[in-house]
From TrEMBL:
The gene is mqo. It comes from the Bacteria. One of its GO terms (molecular function) is L-malate dehydrogenase (quinone) activity. The keyword Nucleotide-binding does not apply. Its EC number is 1.1.5.4. It catalyses: (S)-malate + a quinone = a quinol + oxaloacetate. It comes from Priestia filamentosa. Pathway: Carbohydrate metabolism; tricarboxylic acid cycle; oxaloacetate from (S)-malate (quinone route): step 1/1. This is Probable malate:quinone oxidoreductase. Belongs to the MQO family. NCBIfam families: mal_quin_oxido (TIGR01320), PRK05257.1-1 (NF003603), PRK05257.1-3 (NF003604), PRK05257.1-4 (NF003605), PRK05257.2-1 (NF003606), PRK05257.2-4 (NF003608), PRK05257.3-1 (NF003610), PRK05257.3-2 (NF003611). The keyword Transport does not apply.
Length: 500
């Protein structure tokens, strides 16, 4: 064991999109700070951030129906969609800043223009989609959205989906051309290349084993060098736990009171991938449908054009599954070892409340390939089994906690930051919309954890994110300026329409 304690300003745990984003922002705000990153795998962005492990939608709430809900009076609540869209615009602004500063050279390596569509069937669903369209198009964030229930028009928009469709049920879709496909694996690698050029020390095959607070308020991080077998000890004034599903265990090890009473529920995902180029070329959009009754929000079916390894791909899913692992490369004991005296009642309450989810997941695990093909054929009636193969996506760990609204053991479906009262340590838990809103989330971490610096940093933050502190939905002129300038910086306007 190496008992020497290496001092640093900031330690980032996990080499995924969150640490990449936080590190990149901090290096702009405090270039002289010393930052170290510990990643237990051999490469950057191999878990939740990897392009094969997440949907890569560039979640802007343009097509995800679960971000808009129907109120009891029949009106549509689009407040969550507005919030998520604004957060994605913050990410676009920061990426554009990095491009303008030549810190990112080729944005087309991680972001491509792609229409986002919502698709529904059945009279009741078509009525809902039309009301949603009417509500959203009154807001400047969703300018350019189109609605159609005309089969001939839909054949032009989504030929692969309409081909061979015999159902007489009403069908409708919305389409907006200003959507994107984001390869978060590629973006993570680009940002870490940039960080290494800024003298950030990234240590791969280094697994964090323990985190302890010292008497002076700093943190000692115990790290296992998985190649040499030696244990290292590193000290930092600030620690960020961005280890995806692995964050909960490390938060528990920190012992901060804010982390007590929180549990995690792992959900795995599977996608069908098309390996027939002729089929892939017939579809050019991200098309989101409605989740089946009883299915969790993370299981909304979607047929996505994706750009992976400079190649156009077609993915359908996700099919949910269950594994007790908290990471794809995790342990079968992850779930059981996350149960502690301070969260056991919360976890048990969730187990009782979420019996329908458990049954749903068991049913999903038991599906044969042909059963999955039946789900796919609801989108592509003429889909052939030989054109599609199954790919295991990443693990998500949904947060379980006690809430006023939901009571004891409530399952959360968003992204959450848990931080110590003094701001010296923060952990990111949860899942979608996650990566798409990384810049917003990390700016919130900075605001919460560096209260003494935030006022001095604000002018620089506004240089990186011009809309910082403002609502774009309430400032349509500013939104249009920013949306147009970011499209230009990221090359989106050259590769496709910004507005239809």
């Amino acid at each position: 064991m190496d008992n020497r304690q290496e001092q640093t300003d900031v330690i980032l745990i996990g080499a995924g999109i969150m640490s990449a984003t936080l590190g990149s922002i901090l290096k702009e705000l405090a270039p002289g700070w010393n930052i170290k990153v510990f990643e237990k795998l051999a490469k950057t962005g191999e878990e939740s951030s990897n392009e094969w492990n997440n949907a890569g939608t560039g979640h802007a709430a343009l097509c995800e129906l679960n971000y808009t809900s129907e109120k009891p009076d029949g009106s549509i609540d689009i407040s969550k969609a507005i919030r998520i869209n604004e957060q994605f615009q913050i990410s676009r602004q920061f990426w554009s800043y990095l491009v303008k500063k030549s810190l990112i050279k080729n944005p087309q390596e991680f972001i491509m223009p792609l229409p986002h569509m919502s698709l529904v069937q059945g009279g009741r669903n078509v009525e809902f989609l039309k009301k949603r369209f009417d509500a959203m198009t009154k807001n400047p964030l969703f300018e350019g959205m189109e609605f159609s229930d005309n089969p001939e028009k839909l054949e032009k928009w989504i030929p692969l989906i309409m081909e061979g469709r015999t159902s007489t049920d009403p069908i409708a879709a919305t389409k907006i051309d200003s959507g994107t496909d984001v390869n978060f694996g590629a973006l993570t690698r680009i940002l870490f290349d940039h960080l290494k050029n800024q003298n950030v020390h990234v240590k791969y095959k280094h697994g964090v084993e323990d985190i302890n607070r010292k008497k002076d308020g700093s943190w000692e991080v115990k790290v296992q060098n998985m190649e040499s077998g030696k244990t290292e000890r590193h000290n930092a004034k600030f620690v960020f736990i961005g280890g995806g599903g692995g964050s909960l265990h490390l938060l528990q090890k920190s012992g901060i009171p804010e982390g007590k009473g929180i549990g995690g529920f792992p959900v795995s995902g599977l996608f069908m991938v098309c390996n027939n180029p002729e089929v892939v070329e017939k579809h050019h959009a991200k098309v989101y449908g409605k989740a089946p009754v009883g299915a969790p929000p993370m299981s909304v079916p979607h047929l996505d054009t994706r750009y992976i390894n400079n190649k156009k791909s077609l993915l359908f899913g996700p099919f949910a599954g269950f594994s007790p692992k908290f990471l794809k490369n995790g342990s079968m004991f992850d779930l059981i070892t996350s149960v502690k005296p301070n969260n056991v009642l919360t976890m048990l309450a969730a187990g009782v409340k979420e019996m329908s989810l458990t049954k749903y997941l068991i049913g999903q695990v038991m599906l044969s390939k042909e059963k999955r093909m039946e789900s796919l054929r609801e989108f592509i009636p003429e889909a052939k089994s030989e054109d599609w193969e199954l790919v295991v996506a990443g693990q998500r760990v949904q947060v379980i906690k006690d809430t006023e609204a939901g009571g004891k053991g409530t399952l959360q479906f968003g992204t959450e930051v848990v931080s110590a009262s003094d701001g010296s340590i923060a952990a990111l838990l949860g899942a979608s919309p996650g990566a798409s809103t990384a810049v917003h989330v990390m700016l919130e971490v900075i605001k919460r954890c560096f209260p003494d610096e935030i006022n001095a940093w604000e002018p620089k933050i506004k240089e990186m994110v011009p809309s910082y502190g403002l609502s774009l939905a309430e400032n349509p002129k500013l939104f249009k300026e920013i949306h147009t300038s970011t499209a230009k910086a990221l090359g989106l306007s050259e590769r496709g329409p910004v507005y239809s």
